[in-house]
Write a structure and sequence with these properties.
Arc Repressor Mutant, subunit A, Tetracycline Repressor, domain 2, homodimer, mainly alpha, DNA-binding
Amino acid sequence: MSSLSRAKPVLSLELIVTTAIRMADADGLDRLGMRRLGQELSVEAMSLYHHLRDKDALLDAMIDVVFIEIETPTAPSWRDGLRQRADSQRAALHRHRWALQVLESRSHPGLATLQHHDQVLGYLRAAGFGVRACGSVFSLVDAYVFGFLLTELQLPFDAESAPAIASELLGLTAQFPHFGEYLKEVILSGPYDYADEFHIGLEVVLDAAERLRS
Amino acid sequence: MSSLSRAKPVLSLELIVTTAIRMADADGLDRLGMRRLGQELSVEAMSLYHHLRDKDALLDAMIDVVFIEIETPTAPSWRDGLRQRADSQRAALHRHRWALQVLESRSHPGLATLQHHDQVLGYLRAAGFGVRACGSVFSLVDAYVFGFLLTELQLPFDAESAPAIASELLGLTAQFPHFGEYLKEVILSGPYDYADEFHIGLEVVLDAAERLRS
DNA sequence: TAAGGCACCCTTACGGTGTAAGGGTCGAAT
DNA sequence: ATTCGACCCTTACACCGTAAGGGTGCCTTA
């Protein structure tokens, strides 16, 4: 039909991936389709497949970018370093709410992911953790952070709307007494932010992690 | 076309949900479609919608059943109780590999879920935890368990095949030295089972929980 | 300068998905 | 006897990921 002449390629892997991330951030993961992504890039869907084998490959590339955004620990004290990384990790997963969902169905780590893990391992080794203990600490802290976000991200309320929603649930107090007690005494009495729990848990975990250095 | 006479309803919510769970266990979550589910029940897909508002409602019902399977803690020592629950939780999520994936996109807890949480809260209260501490401990342990399984379930290897796969990765040793060190000294030297990390981390978490009782 | 190959984007089509809309048939209640 | 509601069915729509194959224009090589 129409013949177009192109001096430079319109697409690139990087452009595709960053656009996909922006779309997923804005509209959620299930609104991210190949056609829509193509449309955003003024290109037909199938053209993307010249740069990607699969949609899975796209998702893999997307989480790899997320790992780039997670700060590597640098503080002299390993406690500070791990806390720094955990906060950064949490921030990244807040920016990209789809990431956790993608993470758990993907098992092909990208280069940035491997590099990140390698650097954290090196940091822990330098901080005096044994080889085995490194793995345990890593597994422990990562599990806590990911697990916490699993709950946090799916929570229907933020700090402001929490009391309002909790009030609604009060009707269940008869059926679930301890749940009701918690609602009344913690969430409804004074300011409540579930985010605080993150730091509470993280600190005690780090306290306990000290034991793994032997 | 053909007129069938039915004395009793063929379908029920419970039958649909248990069948869906069986299918998801066997074939994975993405092979669970309404048509296929209907076929398994000798019924057209749309008939299911007489018992379910949505596919989301189905997923909600499915995880609620999973929560029924998670044992409520009973041991006299709260440490034992929490460990017992964590193990049971892990077992359930192993039986139903799709559950974690569903969990993180759903925010409408079912009755069994609420009941389970209420009972655990009551258990912790009885064990001497303050109201606030209950929430922190709950958040902490749940986060750890879920987070650990997030990683564990996506791991491409089990205990036997781990060394074989790790050997392949050894090519990366030059690029990722600490990763390579870990592979060599931990995974390839002697028996390795990532499941062990679960218990190592869990004990640390329970240590941390102890600190929350003040 | 001519020819070949390759990078790049396009078109079409297939088999899947969830579900909105409406239809028919039956047993039970009025 | 009639109405009603529970229950399952049929059809159709707008999506989805992607296999297969096509065409155009630049770059390389002889």
